[in-house]
C-alpha cells in the first residue's frame, strides 16, 4: 500500500460518510465505564513542572489570527517561558468542571467530543531554561517529560528532506493522534477528526506564535516511520500527524545519530479495553511517506486552481479596517472561547461576518500550500440572518472578498438537517461549510492530501472560532450528512466532498 494508490482514500472517505440511514442503523453506544483517559501518562518519568503563571502578551486577537507568517522571516528563538505560553494556549487545560462521577477538563482549543486525542511533543536544541531533548507535554499537570536527552533536530531535518523551516528552527512541536481516545465515540470517522482537532490546536498555536514574533510553519511532509520512532510511539495506537517548526536561528542542528534506539517507555493504558477500527490505521498507513524522495515530491506540487466568480449576483463584503478591530488580546479570547450550545436567532452585521471570513482565510503558512494564500477547501455558506444579505446559499470568493449567491430563500431547516439534524446550524446566523474537490488534491499529493485537506479545514475553523469570539460572538464546529450537503449546494458544488461545518452567530447566555 503506497501513498500513490489513492483508492485507499476513496474507500475510507466513502466508508465513513454519514447518512440519515447510517446514523440511525448504527448500533454503537457509549460505554462510560470504559471512557478514555484524557491524558497520556508516563508513570516512571519525572515531570519538569512549567511555571503556572503563564505570560500574556495580549496582542489583538484579530491581528494575529490574520497573520500569514510572511512578515515573520526574522531570527527569533523561543525560550522556556514562550514555549510554555505556546503550549498552554494551544492545548493546555484552561478550565475544569467537577461532576459526581468524574472531572471534565477543557482545553484551550476546541475538540470533537472533548476527547482531546491530539498529543504534543517537543524536539529542541538547548533553549534558555530548557536543555536539548525530546519531550512530551503533559497538559494535566502542565509539565514536560523528557523522553530523550540531547539534540535530535537532525532526525527531523532528515525526515523532512531538509525542510528549510525545520533546518532553522530551534524547536519543533510534533502533533500526534491517538486512535482510541476519539474512536471511543466516533468510531472509524475519528481519523477525519485527527485533522479537525489538530487544526484547531494549530490555529491557536499560529496565533500565539505570531504574537511572539516567532516564525512557524505547518509541516506535513516527513517520513512517518522516522518521526514515530523518535517519539517512541506504539503506532498501533498513536501516530505522528503534523509538526510545527518554531523560531529561526542561524545555528544548524547537529547530524542525526546513526541509530535512534527504541525506548519502550511504560505508559498508562488509554482505557481498560480498546476497539480497533482497521479503517483508520489503513488510511494512515496508505497516507504515510516512506522516503525522502516522497517528501521532496510532496513540496513540489502545483497549487490548486482558485474558483472564478460566475455571473450570479455578487455581494461585496466589508471587513473592518485594522484600526477599527477589537483590541482584545489573543490570550483573553482563547480563555473566553467555548463551543456555543445555543444560538439566538438574531442577525449579524455585514461587517462582523466579513471580518470573520477575511481574518481567518488570508493564508496559512504550510508546506502543502504553495504559494502562500493557496487553499484546498472552498467555502460555502447558508446565510440565515445577516444584515444586508438576503437569506440563501452562497459561495465565498476570497480573492475578491465577495459572496456569490447560489440560491435565495429561507434555509434554516436545511442547515439544521444537513448538520446531522442538530438545531445549532439552523438557529445560527450563518452555517459555513468547507467543501473540497478531493480528486485533484489526491492527484497532487497522493493519499496524504486527505490529511492535508482535513487539517486545513480544522485550522480555518479554529481561526473562525477565534475571530468570532474576538467580536463577542459564538461559534461551534459540527458534523454533517456528507452527500446531502453536496446535493444542496449543487450544481456549483458538484464533484466536491463535505469536509467541515461551522455555525456562527450570537450565543444565548446560559443561566
Describe the structure.
- The protein is of the alpha+beta class and 511 residues long.
- It is 32% helix and 19% strand.
Low-confidence stretches: none
Strand content: 15-25%
Radius of gyration: 22 Å
Assembly state of the chains shown:
single chain
Number of helices: 18
Structural class: alpha+beta
Condensed summary:
The chain is 32% helix and 19% strand. The protein has 511 residues and is α+β, with helices and mostly antiparallel strands. Strands 9, 10, 11, 12, 13, 14, 15 and 16 form an eight-stranded antiparallel sheet that branches.
Question: How would you describe this structure in keywords?
Answer:
single chain, 511 residues, alpha+beta, eight-stranded antiparallel β-sheet, 18 helices, 19% strand, globular
Topology record:
Blueprint: H1 7-15, H2 20-25, E1 48-49, H3 61-65, H4 80-91, E2 93-98, E3 103-107, E4 118-124, E5 133-138, E6 143-149, H5 153-159, H6 164-168, E7 171-178, H7 179-186, H8 190-211, H9 224-230, E8 238-246, H10 278-286, H11 292-299, E9 314-316, H12 330-336, E10 343-344, H13 350-360, E11 378-383, E12 392-397, E13 402-408, H14 412-418, H15 424-427, E14 430-436, H16 438-445, H17 448-469, E15 474-478, H18 482-489, E16 497-507
Antiparallel strand pairs: 1-6, 2-3, 4-5, 4-7, 5-6, 7-8, 9-13, 10-16, 11-12, 11-14, 12-13, 14-16, 15-16
